[in-house]
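Re: weekly structure request thread

Next one in the queue (269 aa):
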Amino acid sequence: MAINQTPTLCISLARHPGKFGFTVHNVGYKTLGLNFHYQPLGLEDETKLPNLLQTVRATGIRGCSISMPFKPLVIPFLDLIDPKVATIGAVNTIVNENGKLIGYNTDYSGAKEALPDLQGKKVLMLGSGGVAKAIGLAVKEKGGDLYIANRTKDKAKQLATTLEAKVIDWETRFQEQGYLLINSTSIGLNSNETPYSQDYLNNFEIIYDVITSPIESRIIREAKELDLEVIPGYVMCVNQAAAQFKLYTGHDAPIEEMQKAVINLLGGE
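Done, posted below.
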């Protein structure tokens, strides 16, 4: 008689857990027939973070996905970090290797997978928050000539120093021309706002947005109306989850099935 083994557990750590991780990871496990389970976990009190990570270490929880504001806060409690983490300053993935906690940033790898070759091409990135650091590093490693515009210019300057990028004023962003425009701000999240007027989107060949809700943000919709190439936010999200999946399980993620599940979750076709 077959014995049902307890599944290997992976969790997410977020202040307000959503359904994305639960959906995409568990679909991947089911598709490949892996005895894993992914469970979201909410945490409001950041002072409990050290104890929670110690529980991850002691109980053998295999992986832990980290959301803001915890991405930089977990770093001091880890045993090792991937070299990219030192540049980005944030961890979104923890892997438990026999009680040793190792931190990674798959936002970076997800962005790098989504980006085209950028060798010698001008890229304008709007925003300088946590996800912008990961995307900006990916742009630089793809050979892009990175320009950063942020509503708070000092933050743009700080990130530009880290990434050896250039800074432009937020107010003059519509005057810029280049190959790729990236929105890494929250403008458009659950709204019909846009960080870039459609009148000027033709200044670029490709429009990349990090927003996943709505699944087709206004800037993506308006770029499509102009027949521009687009990279919607869910592409990076699925890519970063696939990188997590490989770290947790050792198996290549079933990307197509995971992406279909995410599009369905987000209300797409």
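The longest helix spans residues 233-249. The domain at 109-231 is CATH 3.40.50.720 (Rossmann fold).
Next request, please.
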